[in-house]
Amino acid sequence: MSTINFSAHEINFKIVYYGPGMSGKTTNLKKIYENIPQESKGEMVSLATEDERTLFFDFLPLDLGEVNGFKTRFHLYTVPGQVFYNSSRKLILRGVDGVIFVGDSAPNRLRANAESLRNLRENLNEYNLDLDDLPFVVQINKRDLPDALPLDMIKQVLDPTGKIPFIGAVAAKNEGVLEPLREVSRLVLEKLAQTA
Q: How far is CA 75 from CA 47, 114, 118, 127, 131, in A?
């Protein structure tokens, strides 16, 4: 749920990167952070533990223009990939405006992708949110793997309806990283315009 800071003349949006462990959520944020001009970004905060690269969240505010004279600021978060951090995942989803699901192209990760997407739907349900009503984009990462599953096969498992935007990526090489953010940001602003 976007928030308006009238004193700063700013609308704040929350975008959450969700997906199975080690799919590339943190890599995406690091690459975005590297590519955003210094004056347009805030500080990136990363909390890590021994067993999981990102225990709680990465935080990155971005300035992406104005809406009705208000600056827009996007706050990007990642969730921990491991299932036993589910309470952290739920907490991070509170107040979400848009979701980028980061899936893994490896054949042995197809089930983990599907389970993580199911978990996302369940956790959104806790806040009476439906993924079908949220700005939502899927990024399939690690497309450079020699045994990467065909994108169409992954789509069939994750979105049999064919309604969700899918973007192939190699986040480690900065390929397909900005496109999901641009798309979900566009969808978030579109949704705001419909409700205004």
A: 16, 26, 24, 19, 19
Domain count, the chain: 1
Per-residue pLDDT at 191 exceeds 50: yes
Contact between 140 and 154 under an 8 Å Cβ cutoff? The reply is yes
pLDDT digits (tens, 9 = 90+) for 73-129: 888 999 987 777 788 889 899 999 999 999 999 999 999 999 999 999 999 999 999
Give the domain extent around 65: 3-195
Phi/psi of residue 144, each to 5°? Answer: -85, 0
CATH number at residue 84: 3.40.50.300
Which tokens belong to 136? 């939502």
Identify which of 188, 185, 167, 165 has the alpha carbon closest to the alpha carbon of residue 176: 167
DSSP collapsed to 3 states, 114-181: HHHHHHHHHHHHCCCCCHHHCCEEEEEECCCCCCCCCHHHHHHHHCCCCCCCEEECEHHHCECCHHHH
Query: Given this model, what pLDDT does residue 55 score?
Result: 41
